[in-house]
Amino acid sequence: MCVESDGCEIEGCSSSDEVRTLSGSMSPALRSNPDLHACKPGHKFRAALLRCRSPAAAAGILSFGNVLNYMDRYTVAGVVRDIQRHYNVKDSGIGLLQTVFICSFMVAAPIFGYLGDRFNRKVILSCGIFFWSIVTLSSSFIGKEYYWLFVLSRGLVGIGESSYSSISPTIIGDLFTSNSRTMMLSVFYLAIPLGSGLGYILGSSAKVAAGDWHWALRVSPVLGITAGTLILLFVPEPKRGSADQMGRVKTRTSWLCDMKALAKNRSYVFSSLASSAVSFATGAFGMWIPLYLARAQVVQKTGEDCTKDVCSSTDSLIFGAITCVTGLLGVVIGAATTRLCRQKTERADPLVCAVSMLGSAIFICLIFVVAKKSIAGAYVCIFIGETLLFLNWAITADILMFVVIPTRRATAVAFQSFTSHLLGDAGSPYLIGLISDALQQSYATSALWRFLSLGYALMLCPFIIVLGGMFFLATALFFLDDREKAEKQLSQMTRPPSSVKVTAT
Q1: Is 26 helix (H, G, I), strand (E, B) or coil?
Q2: In 140-254, which residue ranges form alpha helices assigned H by DSSP?
Q3: Which terminus of the chain, N or C, has less C-beta within 10 A?
Q4: Is 45 exposed, middle or buried (0-12, 13-18, 19+ CB in 10 A)?
Q5: Residue 126 above 90 pLDDT?
Q6: How is residue 391 annotated by DSSP?
């Protein structure tokens, strides 16, 4: 017979003398225990679920949820021309969609960070997924005279998605350590560009298949509810810091103490500012590059303005595919490069991020130089620039895991998210739209000037990216000191495992 961890017998098991538990083998003496009883169907189901809760499976499910997180976020960007025409709004009005989403996202992030350090994380994650899925589905039925309500719905979606982005990396951080954690975080953050690209593809494909852009918002909610259910069933709730030490944390600091410590952590502060630069660029690009390239084709006489009920989706599809591929390449190259460079210097993590950011700025500048003459050339520059930009997603998360102790990581992730969105993509889509509208008002409106004005506005992005590279260089200066401080503090907060003394008789 076999015995599960709740002390019941499973019928039809092997008759081996060794008795198996979920945690390993036990003494055969347990076979004669009269307290053992046949498992009920519910016990068998529960035992099967426990066996499936491996760290690798949990990381895979959380990564799948992160794909849906960003897919839902950028589905709207995949049908932005249709939304602009349907609601009859200007560039600044379209930029407001992403700005409202990000503002609600970043305001909710610190709240979920506080909750994630103190309560059951997977329950919070699942509730957040269910909430944003229901709101996204509901927003697809909003009429054209209620654009303000559509904008408000994006803000509510941001609150739901904030719970996921703030908490899920900390679960992976508690399931893995060292290079394994770097690899799993790389897979998790691969979901950012992959999900973003799939958002464009899903939005465009659903719109074309149904002949109505509203259907772009009716597919991801089904997948989101599925992901929330999988998290509830198969993702464990590891003890905070369980992967970092053998002992147990014997004290927990207050929220105010956590905030003071994070403010004094120079590596955390500078890497958060660098993440803000990345968010500024990706937020602006995600919203405006497909529209910019569509306007470029109108100037080149290879395309035309949208005057139909369903606008052309070619640029959104291509941009989405490029984002998926560059995301995969960027995260893989970033993880491999960092592992290789760690053999040369212990400051490899921030240095790799700095170099990739500076290289990305060069190719992003070239986009606006070649787009007027060659769409293919612009796509090449986008491909290289995005690959270099996406190198640092997982590495930045790993930097945080190194310099912040486990009991305040959810708070650290949440406030890094808050900062990066506040200074980054919370304002960049709307700011770019405002600049574009202002430039268009300066001269007579024409297809050429609509294209150029948006390009001039987007030229702000490479300068912000260079500033982000400088912040990563500053992170490299303090990285080793802050990592050592975190290790010392962690050792002071933990008690070694109890030892058992055996006395000879």
Answers
A1: strand
A2: 147-175, 178-210, 220-234
A3: C
A4: exposed
A5: no
A6: T
Query: Taking residues 418-427, what's their average pLDDT?
Result: 82
Residue whose C-alpha is closest to residue 93's, from 434, 407, 479: 434
Q: CA 185 to CA 164: how far, in whole Å?
A: 14
Cα 433 to Cα 452: distance, rounded to the nearest angstrom:
13
What pLDDT is recorded for position 22? 35
Q: Cα separation of 327 and 364, whole Å?
A: 16
Burial degree of 113 (CB within 10 A; 0-12, 13-18, 19+)? buried
Question: How far apart, in whole angstroms, are the C-alpha atoms of residue 319 and residue 198?
Answer: 10
Write out pLDDT tens, residues 337-360: 888 888 888 888 899 999 999 999
Which carries the bigger pLDDT value, residue 254 or residue 480?
A: 480
Burial class (CB in 10 A: 0-12, 13-18, 19+), 254: exposed
**What is the rounded distance in angstroms from the CA atom of residue 115 to the CA atom of residue 148?**
31
Q: Which amino acid is at 313?
A: S
Give percent of the chain above pLDDT 70: 80
- The residue among 67, 50, 72 whose CA lies nearest residue 5 is 50
**Token couple for 308:** 């139909």
Q: H/E element holding 21? A: strand 19-21
pLDDT score for 418: 80
Q: How confident is the model at residue 26 (pLDDT cuts 50, 70, 90)?
A: very low
What distance in Å separates the CA atoms of residue 239 and residue 241, rounded to the nearest whole number?
A: 6
Tally of CB atoms within 10 A around 377: 15
| Global pTM value | 0.67
Q: Rounded to whole angstroms, how far apart are CA atoms 84 and 65?
A: 29
Kindly state the tokens that stand for 366.
């070239």
Q: What is the predicted pLDDT for the residue at 42?
A: 55
The token pair at 374 is 């060659």
Tokens found for residue 399: 């930097």
- The H-or-E segment that residue 281 falls in is helix 266-299
